[in-house]
Amino acid sequence: MKENIKYLVLVIMLLLISVGLTITAYSVIVIKDVIYLDTFVNVEDVVGFNIETDKLNFGTMPAHNLSSGDRKTVFHNPYDHSVKLTDKSYGEMEGWVTMNNPDRIFLPGETDYIYFTIRLNDEIEENRNYTGYTKVFVRRVFS
Length: 143
Prior knowledge:
The protein is an alpha+beta fold and 143 residues long. The protein has a single domain, classed as Immunoglobulin-like, CATH 2.60.40. Helices cover 20% and strands 45% of the residues. The radius of gyration is 21 Å and the shape is flat. The model has no long low-confidence stretch (mean pLDDT 84).
């Protein structure tokens, strides 16, 4: 009985070690970088523009679920291998902001625009600023 418990403990320890090594390898080898972009939108009866390029500021939009806007930013692949970008939005704007071409692969040294779109939802309130952030995950592409 005690030998069975020892083997069970050994198997559990080996399982935990292998899971830990897998997570570490994934975060070091596959995920090369995480870029945080502050994200803003102002909801009013008018349409306004914002020309800032250091964040995803979508300006001013009317409050209905047909409102949408686009922003672009530049990405440069500094690595000696290809990378693919994926995104996720957080905060008050979670799920509103998406990258337009998430399957785009950047070759080594390539620089190009990446485009983001915001789509307001049905629960939007007028005369209010919404904030959040968007994480862009830079993932290594294995070919």
